[in-house]
Design a protein that fits this description.
The complex is a heterodimer. Chain A is built from five helices and 15 strands. Chain A is α+β, with helices and mostly antiparallel strands. By secondary structure, chain B is mostly helical. The chains are: A alpha+beta, B mainly alpha. Strand 5 of chain A pairs antiparallel with strand 5 of chain B.
């Protein structure tokens, strides 16, 4: 897939003759019964008539997943979850790879504008200012986060990092030859299923000068896919079949053992 | 050999799960319980999403209970009429329990209620059973005759209407207590992800005063009906039954259940009860005491966006 996808939030690029191009070695990750994570390998080239030093940043984002997070508080000697808070805009997977630490490549404002780096992810919790009633339950309290909003945001990132779903590898992009670079990004087993975007940005003098986007699909395949679709398309039949299997297995074992 | 589970979306070690299924199946056959109270916490500790663990466990419990019930039926140790009455209550209870559980998950308090239920129910039942069985063992060791079984049944068992004969259990009682017991166990089983045998067995012995010989088989029979219903409901409504996970567990489970049922004849009843009491107590404490310690991580991610 060599299409360049124009993004509505495409950042203003500095006019420069330099350009970047890149390709994934595989655009599909097949999740089969032996799936144990995958490594995404990306090769790219920097075309630059000048000899300005270049930095390359690769950002891989997974499908967006709303996050529900709660904080444990002590009530009458027992640790209890607070009401959960919903964070929107958090990708289910977010890993950056770069030639140097991001804060050495570009300034705070530039990174923030590009949404590059975990610190610059636009995660927010709009739910805290609304009251939603579901199943007769008042789900959310008004403006509870206020002052410790940052604690909550940091906790989201910390928990995602612990599951290897968020990471920043500041040596993840290496130049293998003049103008030719390679990036490797590891997808853990828990990586969500869906469409991923790999964004490749070329920086010169702290400014983005060229940007490419490649897509990557993580999908279930083979038996995994068949069973998953069965469970979701005809759930009642699936339930009956799996229960029949269970009861049959119990009966079969009993018969076998009686003969012995 | 690691295997990726299609519904749970995690990778697990397949031989380990078969072994776990066999161990829990063995315990299930030995004590005549479903074993869900052991299986569900272990699966969650292994990183399987709780909703999937609770739902898939139902298939495993149904399989290993079927495997042992057939053996008990041959020994004429199942009171099908009593089991059916209990299961009718259990079916109603589990439907209500599934709704309560959904509501608790929306509130974000499902973890708390699950942990507290484990602590309270397993703690109390394990503690009572341990005391009772240790007394029985001590009495036997010191050569005293076993405590005469209180044949005076509580009068309210007889005062209620809708009496029914249960010839296999030699009972003529109202159907109201067994139905209420079934409902209570059904609610708990949906919330805790258990079959409920650990509550049913003592309740049948101490409250309904059923003869010890038919208690285990009857409890397993009602567990099959309740967990079959729960398993199909969970698959149909929540799509949380992982057929690969369930199959791995039940392959070990049905074999273990057979071995357990065989082994059970080698132990004295009160020794078995003491052992079961100890296991129940330990699981209850393990699940519940975490509530009192300061957590390492103050925040928790909740599964599902509600």
């Amino acid at each position: 897939m060599a299409l360049d996808i124009p993004s509505p939030t495409a950042p203003q690029l500095t006019a420069s003759p330099a350009a970047v191009s890149a390709a994934l070695t595989a655009t599909r990750v097949r999740v089969t019964s032996g799936f144990h994570g995958a490594r995404i390998v990306l090769y790219g080239a920097v075309f630059d008539p000048t000899t300005k030093p270049s930095d390359v940043v690769v950002i891989v984002r997974g499908p967006e997943q709303p996050i529900r997070i709660a904080r444990k508080t002590k009530v009458a000697g027992v640790w209890v979850n607070s009401r959960p808070v919903v964070f929107r805009g958090a990708p289910g997977f977010y890993i950056t790879a770069s030639t140097r630490p991001l804060d050495q490549i570009a300034g705070f404002g530039t990174l923030r504008r590009l949404g590059a780096g975990i610190d610059h992810l636009a995660i927010n919790a709009p739910f805290e200012e609304r009251i939603e009633t579901r199943y007769g339950v008042r789900d959310v309290v008004v403006s509870r986060l206020g002052g410790d909003y940052l604690d909550w945001r940091r906790a989201v990132v910390r928990l995602k990092e612990a599951a290897s779903l968020y990471d920043a590898n500041d040596r993840g992009v290496t130049f293998v030859d003049k103008g030719l670079f390679k990036a490797e990004i590891d997808l853990p087993t828990e990586a969500p299923i869906g469409t991923y975007q790999a964004e490749i940005i070329l920086f010169q003098d702290g400014q983005p000068v060229s940007r490419k986007v490649r897509t990557l699909t993580v999908e279930k395949a083979g038996v995994e896919r068949t069973l998953y679709l069965f469970a979701h398309r005809s759930p009642w039949l699936y339930g009956l079949v799996s229960m029949a299997l269970a009861l049959g297995a119990g009966w079969a074992a009993s018969v076998t053992f009686r003969r012995n | 050999m690691d295997l990726y589970l299609p519904i749970a979306e995690v990778s697990v070690n397949a031989p380990l799960l078969v072994a776990l299924g066999a161990l829990v199946g063995f315990i299930s056959g030995l004590f005549g319980i479903g074993g869900g109270f052991l299986m569900t916490p272990v699966l969650v500790l292994m990183g399987i999403p709780p909703a999937v663990a609770v739902a898939s466990m139902a298939n495993h419990v149904a399989a290993s209970s079927t495997s042992s019930v057939i053996s008990y039926t041959r020994k004429r140790a199942v009171d099908f009429r009593m089991g059916g009455i209990l299961a009718a209550g259990g079916a109603a209870g589990s439907i209500v329990g599934v709704e309560i559980f959904r509501w608790l998950r929306l509130l974000g308090q499902a973890d708390l209620v699950v942990a507290l239920s484990y602590l309270i129910f397993l703690g109390v039942i394990g503690g009572l059973m341990l005391v009772e069985s240790l007394q029985a063992i001590l009495r036997r060791r010191s050569g005293q005759p076993p405590k005469p079984r209180g044949d005076r049944r509580p009068p309210w068992l007889y005062g209620l209407p809708l009496k029914m004969r249960f010839p296999r259990s030699r009972l003529y009682i109202s159907v109201i207590p067994p139905i209420l017991l079934g409902v209570f166990v059904g609610v708990l089983s949906a919330i805790m992800g258990v079959g409920g045998g650990f509550i049913l067995v003592p309740a049948m012995v101490y409250i309904l005063r059923m003869p010890a010989g038919v208690v285990v088989g009857t409890s397993l029979f009602q567990i099959i009906i309740t967990t079959s219903l729960t398993g199909v409901l969970q698959a149909g409504r929540n799509q949380t039954v992982d057929i690969v996970l369930a199959t791995l567990l039940l392959v070990g489970g049905v074999l273990g259940a057979q071995l357990g049922a065989k082994a059970s004849s080698r132990f004295r009843a009160e020794e078995l009860r003491a052992l079961l009491a100890l296991i129940v107590l330990l699981v209850g404490l393990r699940m519940g005491l975490g509530l009192f310690f300061t957590p390492d991580e103050a925040f928790v991610l909740m599964t599902g966006a509600g």
